Amino acid sequence: MRIGIFGTGGMADALGTQWARHDLMVSGRSDPGPLAGRLGAATGTWRETAAFADVLLLAVPAAAIGEVLAEAGPLAGKVLVDCTNDPSLTGTPVASRIITEAHVVKAFNLAHVDVWRMTPPVFGGRPLSVPLCGDDPAALDAVSTLVRDIGAHPVHAGGLDRAALLEATAAFVIGLWFAGEDAQAILTPLG
Prior knowledge:
The chain has eight helices and ten strands. It has 191 residues and is α/β, with parallel strands linked by helices. Helix 3 packs across helix 4. The protein is globular and about 50 Å long. Residues 2-85 form the Pyrroline-5-carboxylate reductase catalytic N-terminal domain. Keywords: Oxidoreductase. This is NADP oxidoreductase.
């Protein structure tokens, strides 16, 4: 799979490291060279990375999404994985602010960056479940493959209209973690 990574921060590094067996290209607002070097990836402009990739990881601050997508150019037929969260928690949810012809899938936004560095992310003998929200079956299949590549379990959680629920869940759970609470304990298994 050809994966383009929009961003050079923690999420781009963690997920890019997990996907290094794929063909990767990195672009960023800061120099993508160091991250690309660690990943064995190529570097490119936003537009070059978009043209190269079948799947694009959107791992930039929420405030930069519009600018990055405008510079990336046409994305028709591409899969765009949105792992972003907006720390300001105001205004319209991130997923609904993404204006593109790409097939957007909201994923990888519920866990801390260090969880994505785990190989594999397993807790109490159970692989991490990763909710996916998207409308295109082929895009969901591609992202499900990437979830399985890191040893996690993809969970189809509905259409892109439900992505705001994932973002709200992230805000709620991350707030609990920072308060020192065991957020995992609130989501107990049925049996």
